[in-house]
Amino acid sequence: MTDLGLYLAKRTVNKAEVSRRTGISKSRLTQLTSNDSAKLRADELYLIALAINADPGEMFKELFEGLGLKENIGN
């Protein structure tokens, strides 16, 4: 399960309802929640956040908290 999948599971989100409200297909939502190689686009994250009444910025921070810059860039 992806970070998005875990996030939605914690919130007990109905993916069919999210699909209906956002226009993102159920198959795309399944990809995003179960396939680590599926890349979540910013517009998709924003629409999903709106559909589940989450703050898009906070959702972004939680989903991508493990990302960081590499040390010594440019040296």
From TrEMBL:
GO molecular function, one term: DNA binding
Lineage top rank: taxon: Bacteria
Ranges where the HTH cro/C1-type domain occurs: 7-60
Stretch forming the signal peptide: none
InterPro entries in the record: Cro/C1-type_HTH, Lambda_DNA-bd_dom_sf
Name of the molecule in the record: HTH cro/C1-type domain-containing protein
Organism this protein belongs to: Cyclobacterium marinum (strain ATCC 25205 / DSM 745 / LMG 13164 / NCIMB 1802) (Flectobacillus marinus)
Organism lineage string: Bacteria, Pseudomonadati, Bacteroidota, Cytophagia, Cytophagales
